[in-house]
Amino acid sequence: MHAPRQPRFALLGFVALVACSTVAEQGAGSPKVEEVSAHHGPAGTAPGVTLVTNATRDSAAGAIADGDARQSASHQSGTANVDREFPVVRALYVNRFAAQSTKRMRQLIQIADETEINALVIDMKDEFGLNFKTQSAEFARNAGTAGVVRNLPALLDTLRAHKILPIARLVVFKDSVTARVHPEWTIRRQDNSVWRDKKGIAWVNPYHHELWNYNIGVAEELAKMGFGEIQFDYIRFPEPYPSLPKQVFPDNKGVSKPDLLAQFLQEANVRFDKLGARTTADIFGLVTTVGGPLEVGQWWEKISPHVDVVLPMVYPSHYPRGDLGLAVPNAEPYKVLTIALTRARQRDQKLGIKTPEHIRPWLQAFTLGKPPYGPAELEAQKKGTYDSGYDGWVLWNPGSKYEPFLPALEKTLVSRKR
Q1: Contact 163, 156 (CB under 8 A)
Q2: What is the H or E stretch that residue 253 is in?
Q3: pLDDT tens digit string along 238-272?
Q4: pLDDT for position 81
Q5: Of 38, 216, 296, 306, which has the fewest Cβ atoms less than 10 A away?
Q6: How far is CA 156 from CA 56, 274, 304, in A?
Q7: DSSP string, 71-131
Q8: Is the Cα dihedral 395, 26, 174, 149 positive or negative?
Q9: How does DSSP classify residue 330?
Q10: What is the signed CA dihedral for 42, 48, 53, 55, rounded to 10 degrees?
Q11: Helices 55-71 and 152-161, axial angle in degrees (round to 10)
């Protein structure tokens, strides 16, 4: 066992440089239920387990620090050797407003310092636009008005010093800001007007290749700044509810939805490999157990081969009663995780994918329905992950509030997978 890492904010001046505002503090508060729905083992060391880190974390920190000494002035290259430095990722999701808050970021980094958490998934492009100041005038047109992290390089330097992997979350096709700036990039109705979902939100058209260049270009800029992973969320089409007008996709050229998503991810992966960044994608939990494509275009066999990591959102609360053979899936977090991830593992094996941590589930760190979720439910999900053969996971709480779940976090990152 190793002593917890100690905060070192003074080294890099992060506290003085990152934005903190009343809006940001309020934004990191309690989520609405619809925000939750929209997305997206005991402590101690058991006999025979392997300490993945802190030894790995300490050596990784040295590698990152060495790289920073060469790169910090320009931030022109991405995190090198991320697979070696962070072979296992256990992360917290950080929303836009938490990332803009000095106070909240200090708290989240301290959680990582004192537990097994070694990565933060940070909103860099969400439904509100960009969360950083881009150097591209063209990208800046789609920035939105919800504020940004005022000095992202300072934040990244701080994360490196604390041996934390920065992961950039990018919402791709649910992008009302870009839809407003570029209405010619949107999904249309049969009368050629802009299609909108049940909340009146316009979505951009996944078939539009200028949109690809925008999203991949933003990701490349973030990778060059030092993000070791790019995580695509809303990498899907909107639900085609019968009560809504039919969706029309200009320039689709007869390409199916699953093939289109596969092509986008393949292109992104090739470009990110050149920068040393992983390509990852968030998908619905149902994709792991449904044999074919979902109506939103997600299909395991089309997505999995084209990303470094697949992140299924296997939240027990999101499975309907009776699904997976469980009367109340929300009351069976361990079983939900083992059923979903075992099926995903089997499908990867048929594809010839043998990368140890190719699957990294999102775990439920929020309550939606009964029973309420706390440390015991999180421990059950973690155990389900490990018993399915994987070590990594990410906690999702839309308000980025993880304190109620801290008793379920170990003090150091130890391999638990079977």
Answers
A1: no
A2: none
A3: 999 999 999 999 999 999 999 999 999 999 999 99
A4: 86
A5: 38
A6: 20, 20, 29
A7: HTTT--S--TTHHHH-SS-EEEEE-HHHHT-HHHHHHHHHHHHHSS--EEEEEEEETTEES
A8: negative
A9: G
A10: 140
A11: 140
Residues in the chain with pLDDT values less than 70: 1-80
Other CB atoms within a 10 A radius of the CB of residue 242 amount to 5
Which sequence spans correspond to the domains of the chain?
Answer: 9-408
CB 282 within 8 A of CB 393: no
Distance between CA atoms of residues 45 and 52, nearest Å:
12
pLDDT, position 318? 97
As a whole number of angstroms, the distance between CA 22 and CA 127 comes to: 20
Q: What share of the chain is helix, strand, coil (3-state, %, to 5)?
A: 40, 15, 45
Domain 9-408 has CATH 3.20.20.80: yes
Contacts of residue 180, defined as CB under 8 A and 6 or more positions apart, other chains included, come to 202
The torsion of the CA quartet 336, 343, 279, 155, rounded to 10 degrees, works out to 20
Contact 198, 207 (CB under 8 A): no
pTM for the model: 0.84
Q: How many Å apart are CA 50 and CA 87, to the nearest integer?
A: 13
Q: Is 346 exposed, middle or buried (CB count within 10 Å of its CB: 0-12, 13-18, 19+)?
A: exposed
The Cα–Cα gap between 354 and 357 comes to 9
Cβ atoms of 309 and 268 closer than 8 Å: no
Looking at residue 332, its pLDDT comes to 98
Q: At which residue do the structure tokens 């029309």 appear?
A: 248
Q: 24: closest CA among 166, 172, 147?
A: 147
Cα–Cα distances in Å, from 258 out to 54, 85, 295, 304?
A: 40, 32, 9, 11
Q: Which of 381, 316, 390 is nearest to 348 (CA)?
A: 390
- From the list 317, 327, 337, the residue with the least C-alpha distance to 380 is 337
In the chain, the N- to C-terminal Cα span, in Å, equals: 21
pLDDT score, position 39: 59
Quick one: residue 206, left, alpha or beta (phi over 0 = left, psi -120 to 50 = alpha)?
alpha
Can you give the pLDDT at residue 40?
A: 57
